[in-house]
Amino acid sequence: MHYSGKSKSQHVKEIFNSIAGKYDLMNRIMSLGLDKRWRKKVVNICRARPGMSVVDICCGTGMLTRELAEAVVPSGQVVGIDFSEKMLDQAVKNLEEYVHKDKIIFLSGDALDLPFEDNSFDGATIGWGLRNLPDVSKGVQEMYRVVKPGAMVVSIDMGKTAIPLFKQLYWLYFEKLIPLMGEIWASGRDQYCYLYESASEFYSQKELVQIFQTCGLENCNYLNLALGAVAIVYGQKPKK
Ligand SMILES: C[S@@+](CC[C@H](N)C(=O)[O-])C[C@H]1O[C@@H](n2cnc3c(N)ncnc32)[C@H](O)[C@@H]1O
């Protein structure tokens, strides 16, 4: 993929800054309303419990961050971190009325250079974020570094489905229909072409499990959602 002479990070940041206001609506439409249910599964796999401190990397508009907060309140807290100012502004707006908003801190920062000490969190999540990083392994290593021994590292992202016919329909939906929907509802065809390109070039769930293992995580596995069109990949930092 080429990024018009920019770095991948700069390209990605510009994309998300430009679609921040319509991001949640498009997500709801593209996932046929299933995204909330998928996020709850991520929270379960992360084993988020009351009192825990969890970090949500590439938090965007804060939808997964909020689901995590629901699980860790009343005594826990969640830190959401993202490098797009506009996505973070939207996150703050989205949670304005949220009763537990005081349990959430939003920070601006890079997933490849997290501003946290080693072993800081009881869990780490990344929602549709790894695919956007110029170095996926480095992103996983950073998650590994900032969680405590025994904590879960969990990613949810587009997957590679192997089911015949569904596979063809899925890529057709991604390549042709989603950019059209982006043009209609989010005034951004190019941004949604990027979604197709980044998803088609991304690792399969099995390859991602291998990356998690190479980064030192244990008990790594994946859970297919929507027939493998979306997948949760996870692993646990060794207890020592
Ligand atoms: C597809 S959105 C996902 C947002 C959110 N996690 C969700 O579940 O809807 C990807 C997010 O990753 C952020 N992002 C991409 N690369 C990043 C990086 N290197 N550091 C921090 N954030 C990054 C983008 O700004 C964007 O908000």
What's this entry about, in short?
Helix content is about 45%, strand content about 20%. By secondary structure, it is of the alpha/beta class.
Give the names of the bound compounds: S-adenosylmethionine
Average pLDDT for all residues: 92
CATH H-level name... which superfamily?
Answer: Vaccinia Virus protein VP39
Our measurement of the CA-to-CA distance between the termini, rounded to an integer number of angstroms, reads: 40 Å
Task: Bin the helical content.
Answer: 40-55%
Provide the number of structural domains: 1
CATH architecture label name: 3-Layer(aba) Sandwich
Q: Main sheet, how many strands, which sense, barrel?
A: 7 strands, mixed
The best one-word shape is globular
Q: Give me the CATH fold name.
A: Rossmann fold
| CA gyration radius, whole angstroms | 17 Å
Write down the CATH class.
Alpha Beta
Listing every helix as H and every strand as E from the N terminus to the C terminus, the arrangement reads HHHEHEHEEHEHHHEE
Spans with pLDDT under 50 lasting ≥5 residues?
none
Main sheet strand line-up: 3-2-1-4-5-7-6
Q: What structural class do the secondary elements suggest?
A: alpha/beta
Secondary structure blueprint with pairings:
Elements: H1 8-19, H2 23-30, H3 35-45, E1 53-57, H4 63-72, E2 77-82, H5 85-94, E3 104-108, E4 121-127, H6 136-146, E5 147-158, H7 166-186, H8 189-201, H9 205-214, E6 218-225, E7 230-236
Parallel strand pairs: 1-2, 1-4, 2-3, 4-5
Antiparallel strand pairs: 5-7, 6-7
Helix pairs in contact: 2-7, 3-4, 7-8
The structure holds S-adenosylmethionine (SAM).
